[in-house]
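JOB MANIFEST
job_type = single_chain_structure
chain_count = 1
residues = 183
[input]
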Amino acid sequence: GKHTGILFADQDEYSRIEEELVQHGAFAGEVRNLTVDGGEFICFLAASRLYDEDGHLLGSMGVSRDITREKADKEALRSSEERYRDLFENATDLIQSVDSEGKFIYVNKAHVNTLGYTEKELRKLTLMDLVVPAMVERTRLWLKEGPLPDDSDPWRVVFVAKDGRKLMMAGSSTFRFEEGRPV
């Protein structure tokens, strides 16, 4: 027997929902609701007007789903991804991700700055285009098979920069496998 407005943390938000129901007959969206002890939580509300068989307004009906945890999880994931991206973008080490054909999926700023190829240029190149000719076949085999038995840690490779400089690199790599094949 109480007014539904008591469920909403923000009475302006409640008024806006009521206006939507009057104008359009329905509302769907996020709202801030109140618990019985005054705590706030976020819900997704789908509400609509109810009419009798003669078309007379009976009231409104709504279904709410608490999405507080979902919103918090999404924010935590966004924050984690932002920190991850910041770490990679500001690293001084060259970081790259390539597919099993050697096509570049990702390179960080240090990669671009050191080798001189823009991200746009790298989308047209493969890892084999950047290694010295003597290392092309080994690189192809490495991409196809994964770590090779005689790989040392750290591995070493010579990249050819855009300006022709040859740069000896030492580092480590990880592989992602699907159905036993590196991808």
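[summary]
Helices lie at 11-24, 68-89, 109-115, 119-122, 127-130, 136-145.
Strands lie at 26-34, 40-51, 57-66, 96-98, 104-107, 155-160, 166-171, 177-178, 181-182.
exit_status = 0
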